[in-house]
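pinging the channel bc i need a second pair of eyes. not urgent but kinda urgent?? the chain im working w is below, pasted from the shared doc
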Amino acid sequence: MINETYKRRLEAKSVIRELSEYATSRGQEIGYENVFDYSLGNPSVPCTEDFTNSVIEMYEHMDPMDLHGYSPSLGNTSVREIVADSLKRRFDIPYETKHIFMTSGAASAIAHAVRLVTKPGDEVITFAPFFPEYMPYIGDAGAVLKVVPARTEDFQIQEEAFLEMLNPNVQAVLINTPNNPSGVVYSEKTLKRLAEILNQKQEEYGHEIFLISDEPYREIAFDGVEVPYPARYYDNTLTCYSFSKSLSLPGERIGYIAVNPKAVDADILAVICGQISRGIGHNCPSSTSQLGIAKVIDETSDLSVYETNRNLLYDALTELGFEVVRPGGTFYIFPKALEEDAVAFCNKAKKYDLILVPSDNFGVPGYFRMAYCIDTEKVKRSIPVLKKFVETEYPNR
């Protein structure tokens, strides 16, 4: 018998993936250069030469048995040590090797983290707008996802709604900063207040509430802003990271969980993650990827194109009358649609070969996401098309 839960998901495919597939199909008809595809958050800059060269060097000179053998279940020990040392230097938190668990990207990190701190029936709170895949990550662990409505004026945390949603069954809070889809960076004020609330509720409920911090866009920040590191403000923090965006390595599937050394049971949480891996199959991430990122641990790709694209789109959208919060990072922008039905809005845009993602699955109706990790030349060419779309479809806006 086929599992009906997964079978039903075929009827509710990822809107983002569907739009990306449509864009590809449309590109085969008219040339992909004529399709302004803002659907998929796939990095558009190359990985660093140092990463490429380090992998080439490993393949040429390392013992194949050492390079291609299984890594330990917690990850390559030397790589975990290098990751811990980098975090310690950057954020002044005394991470050690024992606090790092290597994963197949941030998705795997979140899947492990949720299972680490919840049991079936427990609640996990997140904040809209949120990455839609949080629903299967949490639901497949048997936990229940609760979503705090968005504070749309700035996409920081809506405190009153959060306080109303907290209850003794909440075991974890999941945040994403810089945020997909809004591009907003949680401020230090927001993170301090969040930590204050969680500390109060831990004492009130008599159990830990873990903060799961999803941070794959940590290095993509604009206007000279330094992204606050959530683990600095709250002890029971599990930091989930991926090198997919910072080093433009999404296909290599490599990331980690960093356990705050001050967290409850900090010394054994990574070991428990190793046991979780036995059940969900996210075990022993690529040895090549682990060793490769260790060689360039503090490097990033040239991410400056994303700020250039952000500026072009933000200026164009505001000039056309869109309400939009200026992104502080990532490569996403999240304007309010020109009608209440975001799906209808995005379907109209498709007639102009503008591929925009409606906001419904992000937990905020009436908005749309643009992933501007595309060539700047294409962004520039899309702006007159965007203007034509708005002026033709919404002449009385």
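so The domain at 4-47+302-393 is CATH 3.90.1150.10 (Aspartate Aminotransferase, domain 1). and Residues 105 and 293 are 12 Å apart (CA to CA). — does that match what u expected or am i reading it wrong
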